[in-house]
């Protein structure tokens, strides 16, 4: 039998689907999924992707309450924080992202990207730029040190 994650990924990869069709397919797969937390997470993501943030938010929270494996947990936190930013709840978004950055993990660059977006939405473009550059710097072997230093100059750590 196919891994449920593979079936969800196949739906996400199908660019021919409309938002409504993607939600319907994800909901169908979720109803047949034995992993309730994963099913709820995927339902949240489908709604979030379709711009239905008010429907996505409680589903993300429920998926996190049910307990997700670490990689999906981090994705759910990032996506919830993005949803909150889109709903105008930037301070709450920043709180989630700061905590996730402190926790550390494989998605640190993604956390930094969404933290930069939230900081920009909060009216702090220098902090947003600094965080984005700090995340980018390790990917610039010739310029890591210089870009890191400039990023700290823009917004020194507090």
Globally, the shape reads elongated
Order of helices and strands: HHHHHHHHH
Number of helices: 9
Query: CATH class, please?
Result: Mainly Alpha
Distance between the termini: 51 Å
Structural commentary:
With about 160 residues, the chain is mainly alpha-helical. The protein has one domain (about 5-125): Serine Threonine Protein Phosphatase 5, Tetratricopeptide repeat, CATH 1.25.40.10. About 75% of the residues lie in helices and about 0% in strands. The protein has helices spanning about 5-15, 20-30, 35-50, 55-65, 70-85, 90-105, 110-120, 125-135, 145-155. The longest helix is centred in the middle third of the chain and has 17 residues, at about 70-85. The mean pLDDT is about 95.
Properties at a glance:
158 residues; mainly alpha; 76% helix; Serine Threonine Protein Phosphatase 5, Tetratricopeptide repeat
Summarize the model shown.
With 158 residues, the chain is mainly alpha-helical.
Layout: helices, strands, pairs:
Elements: H1 4-13, H2 19-32, H3 36-49, H4 53-66, H5 70-86, H6 90-103, H7 108-121, H8 125-136, H9 144-154
